[in-house]
Amino acid sequence: MKMLAMEVGPLSTVCYILSEGGSACVVDPGGEGERIIKELERLGAAPEVILLTHGHFDHVTAVGDLKEKYPDARVYIHRDDAVLMKSPDTSYAEAYGVTVHPKTKADVLLSDGDAVVWRDKTFTVLHTPGHTPGSVCYISGDVMFSGDTLFFESVGTTSLYGGDSRALKNSLERLKALPGEYQVFPGHGGQTTLGHERQANFFMNHDFL
Description:
22% helix; Metallo-beta-lactamase, Chain A
């Protein structure tokens, strides 16, 4: 399996493309749909699964472009962010002059503990609200896609629509308590490990409420 990380859109969101055997799984296609499609074509892989960590525009903007090109791709988001991803106002698309594509919608609404299967990979859904009500992390083996819940030595803001500092604190406690080690691939910035964040992330180790 190959994994490509590419920064897209006005907020430099990291979109991840996993590819194997002509199939792809795309995590957070946040913008620049044509560029993402070119990368998929270069890899010779068509997306079967599109995983969204939450509904802000900078994580979902290219969903419509991908669905137009690849109508069989299945889009997954937590049920609490399904409306957010389509809203020009509360997703902040309008504030950045971004038009919400009419095909920006989910095919499957997720809940905590659900599993999404792509080829031989199973992604377990960990509901981690705080940045948005429906923020999730996807875990497969020792890999975690953390969206805007957890960054390298930081976390996503709770100052936007639907943000909740107490919920985020609880989500971070849940992540901290996970057994074992994980490679963490965030929605912005570089990758990290859960072990490093347990030790060095201020928000995991202090009361910020």
